[in-house]
Design brief:
Helix content is about 70%, strand content about 0%. With about 240 residues, it is mainly alpha-helical.
Length: about 240
């Protein structure tokens, strides 16, 4: 298995948290840095950015970290210009804003529609594509001893990405028509993930036991942050 991303997944398994979440966060930051430092003046990238009315709230926050204030300003200037043009155009096509007929009709809806983005956030779109690719890599690598060993020693997949891998297994098997292979892959991933969740459940139970005032003298061990890890593994960490 030499598929692009395979070795990244193995390395990510050695780090805390869901390996897919970790790689997606890395990839998102790389995409934003590339946009700011390499594509800020690229007309194609700028058109895509403008078509999404900039980025979504979560990814806009990453722009706001100030790694390239001038590049960010240039991108936002283009979007603000488009928003103003769309607003002015929509107002010209409708009755004047101060007219009572505007408020009696659907003028507000028309203006809202005119301000809609033509495309989704470009970072979200790429992230979703990468997410599917990583799930497919894991599904396709469930017969590889290296990936299985790394997966067993990891914190496991978060629930959303575990579901994505199960769906990817079904997708791979539907293409190959090998129902037996699908069943074997599902058994492998379920066995590993279940063992990981069982360990986490035990740690949560131990954390709750030691949190009881009757056991206050006992020192917390690895279970001390089990509740935080449980949040991450059940909810995922979208970015």
């Amino acid at each position: 298995m030499t598929t692009f991303g395979f070795h990244d997944l193995i390395e990510a398994c050695a780090e805390p948290g869901c390996p897919v979440c970790r790689l997606l966060r890395r990839d998102v930051r790389r995409q934003i840095d590339t946009l700011l430092y390499e594509f800020v003046l690229d007309q194609g990238a700028q058109r895509r950015f403008r078509a999404g009315r900039g980025l979504c709230g979560a990814h806009g926050e990453l722009l706001a970290e100030g790694r390239n204030a001038l590049g960010t300003a240039a991108l936002q200037f283009a979007v603000i210009s488009d928003v103003l043009d769309a607003l002015d155009s929509a107002v010209r096509e409708r009755v004047p804003l101060h007219s009572a007929r505007f408020f009696k009709g659907s003028g507000g809806d028309a203006l809202a529609t005119a301000l809609d983005a033509d495309l989704p956030c470009m970072v979200c779109a790429q992230r979703d594509q990468d997410e599917r690719r990583y799930a497919e890599i894991i599904a396709g690598g469930l017969g590889d001893a290296r990936l299985l060993a790394a997966y067993r020693e990891s914190d496991g997949l978060c629930l959303p990405h575990f579901r994505a891998v199960l769906q990817a297994v079904r997708g791979l098997s539907s293409h190959s028509g090998d129902a037996r292979s699908q069943a074997e892959r599902v058994r492998a991933v379920v066995a590993i993930q279940r063992a990981i969740w069982e360990r986490l459940k035990d740690e949560l139970a131990e954390f709750m036991r030691k949190s009881d005032f009757h056991n206050a003298a006992e020192t917390m061990g690895a279970e001390a942050d089990s509740w935080r890890r449980a949040i991450a593994l059940l909810s995922g960490r979208p970015i």
